[in-house]
Amino acid sequence: MKHQWWVVSAVVAAACGSDAQPKAARAPSPEGSLLTVDTATLDVPLAIPAQLYVEHDARVYARSSGFVESVYVDLGAAVGEGEPLAQLEHVDQEIALARAEQDYARAEREVARARDLARMGGMSAADSETAELNDQQTALARRQAKRNLDLTRIVAPFAGVVTARTVRPRQLVASGDSLFRVSALGPLRVSIRVPETAAGIRVGGTAQVVGIDGTAAAATIIRGSPTVDPASGTREFLLQLGAGGGLRPGGAVTVHLGAERRTVVAIPKDAIAEQGYVLVSDGGRTVLRAVTLGTTLPDGRIEVTSGLSPGERLVRSAK
Q1: Residues 116 and 159 in one domain
Q2: Which pLDDT does position 304 carry in this prediction?
Q3: How many domains is the chain partitioned into structurally?
Q4: pTM for the structure as a whole
């Protein structure tokens, strides 16, 4: 009776938030009330933290220097592939293209005359080759002038949504400056690394993806690495989520799939006192110890993730 009275008193003291944890009881525990910490081997479903992403997600950079003449879109705007996002000043590029067009037209006329004269024997081979070379050079100059003008137009690389805008009208930008970010809203993907020992994971298999707010969506494994990373002992798998679901690119999620065979520390429920404490029998003394509990096992026992080691002796709870 003394021992039982002390067990109840110790648990009550722990529940009341006593700063000083009892170190040991004065009286040894009866052998009949002791049990041994054991292990259990089971298949535990994997829960892997990850982050959603989309394949089409890119920053849009200035490819020419100059002042920003116009900005056509703002944050959150939906855009199509090739749709204009902004326009840089381009008068100089238009003038250069007009000159290149004139030079090309003149070279085309000259090379046509040179070919006619060459057929009639009225032009040397050297003069004919010079005319042909000039025609080719003016064609390249015309093409470059068109390219320079095109680079003043900032366009969306693919259909999506503007997720960042760092440019303003009349701002001076240099080639390589980041102006926008465009992201597609789907399909959502997630990349995970699973232990080599995991079972039930294959290309074509399914998984559940859960967001931090509890929103869940089904996913399919679309790719898997054929090799194991020797440093981590894991394989990489790529999953794609189905349409809908309310999850967004960049969101933190937990991927639930497959199972991994694990050996865990397990104890009966009646060994756990209130507030997650157990009474450990140590050399004839009884010590109150806090433990971290995991899931309930199929046989009714409780997994202990920290605080106990296999083979230790526990006192059954007096509750």
Answers
A1: yes
A2: 87
A3: 3
A4: 0.64
